């Protein structure tokens, strides 16, 4: 049994305003994707609600917390510590006893970068974060429509959008996003 009140109370200590509204929408989107694709529904909701638990921590705090736990795996994270808010959230939630299910923690950990070999729950949460109804950036509607029929297809589309955005901006690309996208592509039925 999930203690939603306890999760909401902890979340309220970390996030405010639009970020709180965002995670609540991700919870609902993750639930409907989980129902559609047969992922564990309650786990998807917990991961959706808690995925940005560390999103409001300053960059230097994220980097320090990540280093302390040896969670830094790619140079892009040193440059852009915001990338660490997933791994740090998973670590904090586990240590604080707020989330104990390993698959839920993994979905939270990899919700920003993705990773090769990501499981169904991880895919659902990653995509829910991208297509929740508050997302209005170019391409979101197309990915949302694809998510109605093809989970991996929607993920590839969304990751391609992310990579194109990063290249256009001249930002570093996290190795795991490239690997996740290639992994998804190589598993497509031809
Ligand atoms: Fe996030
Ligand atoms: Fe998010």
Describe the structure.
The chain is built from eleven helices and no strands. It has 190 residues and is mainly alpha-helical. 38% of the residues are buried. The chain binds fe (iii) ion (FE) (2 copies). One fe (iii) ion (FE) binds at residues 51-52, 55, 85, 111-112.
Could you say which structural class the secondary elements and strand pairing correspond to? mainly alpha
> In percent terms, what proportion of residues is strand?
under 5%
Please report the distance between the alpha carbons of the first and last residues: 42 Å
Bound molecules: fe (iii) ion
In short:
With 190 residues, the chain is mainly α.
Structure keywords:
binds fe (iii) ion, mainly alpha, 190 residues
List the helices and strands and how they pair.
Layout: H1 4-14, H2 17-37, H3 41-50, H4 59-68, H5 75-79, H6 85-95, H7 102-109, H8 120-131, H9 140-146, H10 151-169, H11 175-186
The structure holds fe (iii) ion (2 copies).
One fe (iii) ion (FE) is lined by residues 51-52, 55, 85, 111-112.
């Amino acid at each position: 049994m999930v203690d939603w009140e306890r999760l909401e109370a902890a979340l309220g200590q970390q996030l405010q305003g639009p970020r709180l509204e965002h995670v609540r929408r991700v919870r609902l989107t993750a639930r409907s994707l989980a129902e559609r694709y047969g992922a564990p529904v309650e786990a998807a909701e917990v991961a959706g609600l808690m995925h940005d638990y560390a999103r409001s921590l300053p960059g230097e705090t994220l980097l320090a917390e990540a280093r302390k736990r040896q969670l830094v795996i790619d140079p892009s994270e040193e440059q852009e510590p915001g990338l660490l808010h997933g791994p740090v959230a998973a670590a904090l939630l586990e240590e604080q006893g707020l989330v104990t299910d390993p698959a839920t923690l993994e979905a939270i950990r990899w919700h920003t970068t993705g990773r090769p070999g990501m499981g169904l729950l991880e895919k659902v949460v990653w995509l829910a974060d991208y297509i929740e109804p508050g997302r209005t950036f170019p391409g979101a509607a197309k990915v949302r429509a694809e998510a109605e029929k093809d989970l991996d297809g929607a993920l590839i589309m969304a990751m391609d959008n992310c990579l194109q955005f990063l290249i256009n901006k001249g930002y570093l690309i996290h190795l795991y996003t490239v690997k996740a996208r290639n992994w998804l592509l190589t598993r497509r039925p031809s």
